[in-house]
Amino acid sequence: MLTDQELLRYSRQILLAQVDIDGQLRLKNSRVLIVGLGGLGSPVALYLAAAGVGELHLADFDTVDVTNLQRQVLHDTASVGLSKVDSALARLTAINPEITLQAHRSALDEDSLAEAVKVVDLVLDCSDNFATREAVNAACVAQGKPLVSGAAIRLEGQLSVFDPRRPESPCYHCLYGHGSEAELTCSEAGVLGPLVGLVGSLQALEALKLLAGFGEPLVGRLLLIDAFGSRFRELRVKRDPGCSVCGEHHD
Ligand SMILES: [Zn+2]
Known about the structure:
The chain has 251 residues and is an alpha/beta fold.
C-alpha cells in the first residue's frame, strides 16, 4: 500500500490515468539497475528517485572529477574526489528518503554483473563505452530483463529499448554488434550537457513506462537526436536471427 506521505509526494503523477495508484504501486515495488552515474545516469537517477521507483541499484567505479560537472548534474563541486556512488547516495536520499538505494562501487565483472542484473526488473545502460554496453546487453538477454539504452556524443544522441521478453525485439548486439563510434568517449570527443540530459531524461521516461506498465515502449525503434539541427528521427530496427547474443543458435 501507499502511505499518505507517498500519495502526497507522487500526487501529480498519480493524477495521470495511465499511472494511478496501481502504477505508483508498481513503481514502488520495482528494482532497477543504473549502470553509470555520469551524464546519462544523472537525470536517470534523479528522475527515477523522485518518481518513487522503490529500489535503485547504482553502479559506478569512478570518482567525481571537476570536468564531470558541466554535464553530470547529480554531482556538485563539494563532491569532487568522492566516489560517484557516494555522491549519488547523498543527493538521491536528500531528494527522496522513501526509496531504497543499493551501491555497487567496484567495476562489475561477468559474474557480479549477472548477479546485479538478476535481482532487478529493468536495467538502464548509462555507460560510456562499448565493452560495458556489450556486457550489460549480454547479461540482460541471458536473464530476460528489459534494457533501456542511451548514448550521446558531440551533438548527437541515440536511444532505444531492448526487451528480450518480446520475441520481435532486437538486442543491443543486433544493432551495434559490429562496433561503432560508441568507441569514442565524451572525454575525447566532447559533448553538451543538455544533450546528455535530454537522452537521460528520455531513458528515465521509457523506464517509468515499462515499470508502471503503460504506453508504447521504444522497442524495435532507434531514436536519433541531432542537436545541431534540432531534429529527431526514428529508424526501425529488426532482430537479427543470426545474432551471436540473442539469436537462435547461440549457446
Ligand atoms: Zn541480438
